[in-house]
């Protein structure tokens, strides 16, 4: 964790840029219906890609965005070495799918409880 605290100004700059990128990602899918499940899923994928951190090397205390770690580690050290960063992305994707499932369940329950 000290890797994140030590480089806090750079993480803050990345957060601003990632939020801008996420806004652009959402605008890219304007043609999908605003309340559609597909749009929610696409938005979740964008959030996972932009906001998931990963250690810069396996068992490192320093983190970087997984979207950056994965390709650069694959290029410099090989694909098999870079698979740990893919695990971070897949874990974030599973959490995102779980959150979307809970959200969908709450929408279904709210729809069932409201009188017509």
UniProtKB/TrEMBL annotation:
For this UniProt entry, which segments traverse the membrane?
12-34, 41-58, 88-109
Q: Which domain of life is it from?
A: Bacteria
UniProt keyword list = Membrane, Transmembrane, Transmembrane helix
Q: What is this protein called?
A: Uncharacterized protein
UniProt organism field: Thalassolituus hydrocarboniclasticus
